[in-house]
Amino acid sequence: MRAYYINLDREAERRDHMERALQGIDHERVAAIDGRAWPPTGKSLTRFELACMESHRQAWRKFLATADAYACFLEDDVHFSAEFPVFVTEEGWIPADAHAVKLDSFFNRVMIGAPLPAPLGRNIARLYTRHESCAAYVLSRKGAEIFLRQTENPTRPVDYIVFPEDPIDQGLMLYQLTPAAAIQDSRYLQHYAKGQNFSSAISRLDNPKPEGGPARLWYIVKRETIRLFRDIGRARRYLVNRLVRRLKPEVIPFR
Q1: Measured distance CA(230)–CA(228) in Å, rounded
Q2: Is the per-residue pLDDT at 22 higher than 90?
Q3: Which of 104, 144, 152, 187 could tie 60 with a disulfide, CB 3.0–4.6 Å?
Q4: Strand 174-178 and strand 100-102: pairing?
Q5: Residue 241: inside a domain
Q6: 116 with 178: CB under 8 angstroms?
Q7: Could you give the count of Cα atoms lying within 13 Å of 151 in the half-sphere of its Cβ?
Q8: What domain count does the chain have?
Q9: Taking the alpha carbons of 113, 114, 119, 120 in that order, is the dihedral positive or negative?
């Protein structure tokens, strides 16, 4: 399969890092859309989140323009296991029903199903909960088609759509490679004291929060209401996964 890595034109250091890391792997750079060039949105997503979303969508479209069955998608601040090339040069380890396979770990707690054997002593397991980031993942053609549809009018960042809170409820067949074979630079620095300390290419906010008055009150009420409903949903999903599916929270290691 081919690996597509997403990289801003102005991020030459990251581009050099990825070109070195992907030597010997069939890969293609996808020029990322620069959120700095977009106006503030005034919506639930910032211009940077929307630019990131569209950059991933561009990569998915490139994949679907080929006859390939699978493709790997990478952000440009990723570090790889020495064994990573095996997982993008072989495809037989990928479950036939997979829409997406997450190759990295963000080190938040997740719940996964029964392990299936993968190359080099690793496992692959169905992912039942959200696992943050879209730093390194594989999509099938069906998965790319699904996520292109789901991101046409997005209200959440790209990784919340590809690896959502409740994949089962959305009819998604998502899998996790464990141990992970890739890791974002920020996680590498935090957990392994390694990495390059790449500066962030994304700003979190477009517009300041309302300062006071009715606008500020409405902002708080809306934010807390959304948070309450999400917390209720998380609690329900947690109980189903723990009591019905007998799953346990765990952190996916990197190796």
Answers
A1: 5
A2: yes
A3: 144
A4: parallel
A5: no
A6: no
A7: 27
A8: 1
A9: positive
For 121-172, what is each residue's pLDDT tens digit? 999 999 999 999 999 999 999 999 999 999 999 989 999 999 999 999 999 9
> Do 77 and 14 form a contact (C-beta atoms < 8 A)?
yes
Per-residue pLDDT tens for 74-96?
999 999 999 999 999 999 999 99
Distance CA 118, CA 94 (A): 8
Has residue 127 been placed in a domain?
yes
Q: How many residues does the chain have?
A: 255
Domain that holds residue 153: 2-208
CB atoms within 10 A of CB 153: 6
CA dist 102 and 180 (Å) reads: 8
Per-residue pLDDT, 199: 67
Report the chain's terminal Cα–Cα distance, integer Å.
22
**In a 3-state reduction of DSSP, which class is residue 61?**
helix
Whole-prediction pTM value? 0.86
Record the tokens describing residue 231, joined without a space.
Answer: 């917390």
Reported as a single tens digit per residue, the pLDDT across 217-252 is 554 454 445 454 555 666 677 676 777 888 999 999
| Residue 63 within a domain | yes
Furthest-apart CA atoms within the chain: distance in Å = 59
Closest CA to 101 of 79, 68, 71: 71
Q: For residue 143, is it within any domain? A: yes
Go through 92-128 and write b for each residue having 16 or more CB atoms within 10 A of its CB, e for each that does not: ebbeeebbbbbbbbbbeebbbbeeeebeeebebbbbb
Tell me, what CATH number does 153's domain have?
Answer: 3.90.550
> Residue holding tokens 């409903």?
229
